[in-house]
Amino acid sequence: MWEPNIIKNEDIELLLTDVAERYGYDFTQYSKASLKRRLNRICLIDKFSSFAELRYRVMNHPEYLQRFVEEITVNVTEMFRDPNFYKSLREEVFPRLGTYPFIRIWVAGCSTGEEAYSIAILLKEANLYHKSLIYATDINPGVLERASSGIFPISQMQLYSENYRLSGGIEDFSKYYTANYDSVQFHHNLKEKMIFSTHNLVSDSSFNAFQLILCRNVLIYFDKELQNSVFDLFDISLDALGYLALGSKETIRFSKLEKQYKQIGDERIWKKIR
Amino acid sequence: MLKRTNIVVIGGSAGSLKVLLVVLPHLDKDLSFPIVIIMHRKASSDSVLNKLLAHSTQLEVIEIEDKMTMLPGCIYIVPPNYHMLFENKTLVSLDFSEKLNFSRPSIDITFRSAAEVFQEGAVALLLSGANSDGVNGLKEIKSYQGTVAVQDPATADVDYMPLQATLHVDVDIILKPTEIASYINRLRI
């Protein structure tokens, strides 16, 4: 889908300022290059032929806002993406977490929930799920509903099953879901310890203390300043000796956190050491 | 009028690695612009490609990370399974949005971004490949007065991609693999 090039840089500023003032959703510190693509994309799929049309709809139809927010944020995710990352969680992180009487995990920017379910499966296999709680949060209520349904396209299962195996999984992956025509339903016992809630990384504050925070391929959509403020939010939300996990091309290097955290192996997992 | 080159973006798919291994050894070390390479490859591919390319050139080869600052005279490789965008003339972002042309990274996406940010200072080169990713991007480069170069389809292992480019884009120059390095070296200020 080759989107048209309707939106200009100055349009973006204007629209984002309007949206922040009118609705309290602040996207002004999102990466402009990616946002511009999302805005052009929404013009294509919702058939706006000009910036003025898009702006009119957003500003005068509050019921359109949820769709707008969902479409300009990227909601593409995978189960067990980067299998080596999950392997490190299994081998390096979970044995440590196992020493706690109670484990709290935050999946920040969980989108449609694929990572939260991956984590649930790992916790089950490490025999830690019964004493864990997974907080899965996202800015979009719509994607959280899909996450909580536990229903995913069957077309993805071959990839997920392969990822699972490469992450060190030894079970038959299909034992975790029931297939149903073109979709699969993950078993309800996987979400017994999941809490889905909206949370905006830009404006909402810390709501608990965690031993592990995962925020993978979310910060790439933020500018550096916003990335740093989110790092601060994670820092105050992490217990001493807690773990922070980012996407494979994201880093806390060059941020304030760098000196207080130690990277675990080759993966993008850092331990809070002071 | 001689245009000043601020970026060289190279896109390739099937059959393009071979070309890069011919080109990279002959690139001069003191290029006055960065080079960005967008290659289609398997999402799970490891760092073998980066190592292979790094060993073939005296320039520094760097796999792009989010919000990295680009320097002249370095070669930047877009990592598998991400799109790459330019925030401005030095800062780059990664993006995990939907595939385009069944591809992530998509050559079109990075070419368009280069066109918008660098305008007439962008040089885009499309190599061998089996789909038409990159062709729309070349049109964007052209519409911003950038320069469009294409591998001579007759020399391509898979000629579909460069052939589509020559059919649909007003190409500035067609190059054989052995001509590409000296072409890039001459873009230096």
Describe the structure.
The complex is a heterodimer of chains A (274) and B (189). Chain A is α/β, with parallel strands linked by helices. Chain A folds into 2 domains: 9-72, no CATH class; 83-272, Rossmann fold (3-Layer(aba) Sandwich), CATH 3.40.50. Chain A has 9 helices and 10 strands. In chain A, the strands form 2 sheets. In chain A, strands 6-2-1-7-8-10-9 form a 7-stranded mixed β-sheet. In chain A, strands 3-5-4 form a 3-stranded antiparallel β-sheet. The longest helix of chain A is centred in the N-terminal third of the chain and has 15 residues, at 9-23. Chain B is of the alpha/beta class and 189 residues long. Chain B has a single domain (7-186), classed as Methylesterase CheB, C-terminal domain (Rossmann fold), CATH 3.40.50.180. Chain B has helices at residues 16-23, 48-55, 107-118, 135-143, 160-168, 177-186, and strands at 7-12, 35-39, 60-63, 74-77, 83-86, 92-95, 122-126, 147-151, 173-175. In chain B, the strands form 2 sheets. In chain B, strands 3-4-2-1-7-8-9 form a 7-stranded parallel β-sheet, with helices on both faces. A two-stranded antiparallel sheet of chain B has the order 5-6. In chain B, strand 7 (122-126), helix 4 (135-143) and strand 8 (147-151) form a beta-alpha-beta unit. Chain B is globular and about 35 Å long. The interface between A and B is medium-sized, with 26 and 23 residues.
Number of helices of chain B: 6
Apparent shape of chain A: globular
- CA distance, first residue to last residue of chain A: 47 Å
Question: How is the largest sheet of chain A built, in terms of strand order?
Answer: 6-2-1-7-8-10-9
* SSE pattern of chain B: EHEHEEEEHEHEHEH
Structural domains of chain B: how many: 1
**What is the CATH-assigned architecture of chain B?**
3-Layer(aba) Sandwich
Q: Summarize the helix and strand pattern of chain A as letters.
A: HHHHHEHEHEHEEEEHEEE
Measured distance between first and last alpha carbons of chain B: 13 Å
At CATH level 2, the architecture of the largest domain in chain A is: 3-Layer(aba) Sandwich
Roughly how many Å is the radius of gyration of chain A? 19 Å
Tell me the CATH superfamily of chain B. Methylesterase CheB, C-terminal domain
The value of Rg of chain B in angstroms is 15 Å
**In terms of per-residue confidence, which ranges of chain B show pLDDT below 50 for 5 or more consecutive residues?**
none
> Poorly predicted ranges of chain A (pLDDT <50, ≥5 residues)?
none
The structural class of chain B is alpha/beta
Q: Give the % helix of chain B.
A: 25-40%
User: At the third CATH level, what is the topology name of chain B?
Assistant: Rossmann fold
- Quaternary organization: heterodimer
